[in-house]
Each structure stands twice: as C-alpha cells, then as structure tokens.
Design brief:
3 helices; single chain; about 140 residues; Methylmalonyl-CoA epimerase; alpha+beta; globular; MMCE/EMCE_epimerase; 2,3-Dihydroxybiphenyl 1,2-Dioxygenase, domain 1; 8-stranded mixed β-sheet; 8 strands
C-alpha cells in the first residue's frame, strides 16, 4: 500500500465561522483563502493556510448535519485530519481489505474540488480521518 502524499488539512468544527476569523488571521497569522458552501454535506467551510498546511473551519448549515451533531455532542474543536492520496477508490478498497471500518465506501464530492472518503475513528485510534484526492472529472 502506497503511503499518503501529505497532510492536506485539519478540519475544525465551529458553531459559526465569522467569530473565529480574528483568531486565525490576527493571532495565528493564517492566510484566509475563502469560504465555500458544500450543500451535499450541509456545511460552509472557511479555508486558511499556515505554511504548507490548510485549516478548514467547518460550520453546519443544517441542525441535523453530522457537524451539528458533532458539536452538540463534543463541542467545537478538532473534527478530523485529512490526508492527500493517489487513486482514492483503490485506497478505499485496500483499507477495507485491511480491515478498516470505512464511513465512505465510494468517494464523494468534498470542498475545494476534492473527492473525499472518511475512515471511522474506531479504526484510527479515535481520530476521524479523511482521505482526499483532487477531483479529475
């Protein structure tokens, strides 16, 4: 199995993006890259860059969405780590054969022109893990 290419981003669940912006921009010096709505995941995502790593602030647009439920249960904070991979469908098959519990068994559209698939935290030491690949279609 080929290693992941790099850490793509760190996802942080927030109740609202705007109140967090001053911290990321003024305190950390992160570069704001924009906001995108991802309707199929019921979220708005703000992108920040610090060096080679991106931080995504994820805000729910639906009180029944997975992000809203996450915040209700655990509060705001670290939601997931995302790693860039080559050939996401093949990687999903390999991880399934390896015995990992996949949330997504086929890639789905994510933010920033990426296809994504999540590995369940019970297979990753309690850390929700996202695999992503730049969308080619």
């Amino acid at each position: 199995m080929k290693p992941v290419k790099s850490l793509n981003h760190i996802g942080i669940a927030v109740r609202a993006i705007e109140p967090q912006q001053a911290y990321y921009e003024d305190v950390l010096g992160a570069i704001f890259e924009g906001i995108e709505e991802v309707p199929n995941q019921h979220v708005r995502v703000a992108f920040y860059r610090i060096g080679d790593v991106r931080i995504e602030l994820i805000e729910s647009t639906d009180p029944q969405s997975p992000i809203a439920r996450f915040i209700d249960k655990r509060g705001e904070g670290l939601h997931h780590l995302a790693f860039l991979v080559d050939d996401l469908p093949t990687r999903i098959d390999q991880l399934t054969q390896f015995g990992l519990n996949m949330i997504d068994t086929v890639p789905r559209p994510g933010a920033d022109q990426m296809d994504v698939a999540f590995i369940h935290p019970n297979s990753c030491g309690g850390v929700l893990t996202e695999l992503c690949q730049t969308r080619t279609r």
